[in-house]
Structure formats: structure tokens, C-alpha cells
Amino acid sequence: MKKSAKKVNKSKKKISTKPSAKTPAMKKTITKTANKKVSSGEIYQLPETNKNLVLHVGCGTNHNGSRLHKTFKNDNWQEVRFDIDKDVNPDICADMCNMDMVLDNQFKSIWSSHNIEHLFAHDVPIALGEFHRVLKDGGFVLIACPDIQAVMEGALKVGFEQPLYQSPMGPICPIDIFYGHRGAIEKGSVFMAHKTGYTARTLANKLVQAGFVDVQVKRESGYNLLAIGYKKSDKSKANLTPKIIEEDVNDMMKRRDELDAEPVSWKGLSA
């Protein structure tokens, strides 16, 4: 008779994958950085200066302040460059819907030219909320974007895919302003796509909803809106009803490239 082999229990000891109560949680490392480019995970330290700081959101390849609004082209202002594209070498590389590397109450002004139309509609309140958060009390945001009402009026006159005007990028049609420049998108610049649009009234309302006061939106020639809104902790003397400033938007011979051109100077703009 063969002796029966003794069964050996070789079951492995189970190892718990749950964190021990004694094990400290991992913490995200935050680094304050001076005079250095920063991205998510770091906190931007403001440059030492006596000048007012303007955060240029969507700065692009500009390195000499050439794309700033005229308000900021003087010795009273210093530019801090902000862009989602690291290849343009911004001071802060981030998404305007998540500016967590910028502390609260840091900037006297924010300048954003033709950026917010590239956001989905549901992201617009988030971005404007971030703008409001990083502004100092008494600071202001200045925003330029397409006047979608003027574009619709132009489309009814000339057709949706017929040129409204000529630009350095070629002829600009209503479809290019509604959805983004087709030529640039075709070449791979998908970030040029437009995902929402604004009339003067809807832009004003969104600024008010984000907490801005003394809001004004000007309808400029060139299918352009220029909006300003202030951050004020004391709203008792602030105007909570936005003001719409109409300008002649029917002069087709004076249209400019809405995608890249800077807005005209706004008389009476407070600094």
C-alpha cells in the first residue's frame, strides 16, 4: 500500500491593501517660486516691483507687451504672462479654469483678449470666478471677444460662408467667427476652435454673476466686444446693473481681424 501524501496547507497570507491608520497621507508638494516659470503644482510668487501687475491671460507668443491693451502700455504696469501653451514660454503655464498656482488677491488687473470664446459655455463661470479670485480688491478685468450679435447681422447681409472683411490671415467669414478660423484649425491648431459666443448683454450678465461690479460692455466696430468689471468687497456704492455702450457696428469698410487684432482704446477707462 502507498502511503497517502500528507496535504500541506500552502495558502498565502493575505496582504491588506488598505492604508494603515498610522500611515500619514501623501501631501502635494507646493513650491513658492520667484523669477521662474511655473505650472500646476507650484505657487507663483509675484515679482518685486512698485508697478501695478496685469495678468495677461492667453498671452501667446508676445514677449514685449505688444499684445497688451493700450491701458497697460505705460510705465505704471508690469505684465505677467499666462498661457495654456508651454511652447510660448509663459510665466505661468495653466488653464484659466484652474489657476491654483496663483494665490488670491494678487493682481491689479487681468487682460484677456479673445480667449473666453474658446471655452465651453459651462466653463465660462469657472474661468470668470478664477479671474475674480486672483484680482486685488479694487482691481479690474478687461476682456475682448467677438460680438456675436454683430456677426449674425453680418451673416444675414453677406452670407454665412462669404467674407465679411480681409485680414492678415485671409478673408474672414461669419463661420470663422462662430466656430474658429477654419484654416488654422485645418492645419492642426484645434485650440483655435470657438465653443461659445456672447452678445454684449450675455457677457455683461456673466461678469455680474461672477461677482464683478460697475460692469460696462462696449460694442466696438470690428465685430468686437470690450468689457470691464471691477472687484469690490464693499458693494454698497457699486453699480450692480451693467451698462451697454453702443457704437456704430455697421461700417463694413473698417472691420478688423477679430481673431488677433487688439481692441481700440476705450475713452474713460479707469485704471
Q: What is the C-alpha radius of gyration, as a whole number of Å? A: 25 Å
Q: How many distinct beta strands?
A: 13
Q: Helicity level, as a percent range?
A: 10-25%
Order of helices and strands: EEEEEEEHEHEEHHHEEE
CATH architectural type of the domain at 35-146 and 197-254: 3-Layer(aba) Sandwich
Multimerization status: single chain
Low-confidence stretches: 1-35, 248-271
Could you tell me the CATH topology label of the domain at 35-146 and 197-254: Rossmann fold
Strand content: 15-25%
| Chain-averaged pLDDT | 81
Short structural summary:
With 271 residues, the chain is an alpha/beta fold. Helix content is 16%, strand content 24%.
Architecture overview:
- The structure is a single chain.
- The strands form 3 sheets. This protein has a 9-stranded mixed beta sheet with strand order 2-6-5-4-7-8-12-11-13.
- Strand 9 (165-167) and strand 10 form a beta hairpin.
- The model is unreliable at 1-35 and 248-271 (pLDDT under 50).
- It has 271 residues and is of the alpha/beta class.
- The protein has helices at 124-134, 148-158, 174-179, 182-186, 200-209, and strands spanning 31-33, 38-39, 42-44, 52-57, 77-83, 92-93, 107-113, 135-146, 165-167, 170-172, 213-220, 224-230, 243-245.
- The chain has 5 helices and 13 strands.
- The chain has a domain at 35-146 and 197-254: 3-Layer(aba) Sandwich (Rossmann fold).
What are the defining features of this structure?
271 residues; alpha/beta; Rossmann fold; nine-stranded mixed sheet; two-stranded parallel sheet; 5 helices; 16% helix; disordered N terminus; disordered C terminus
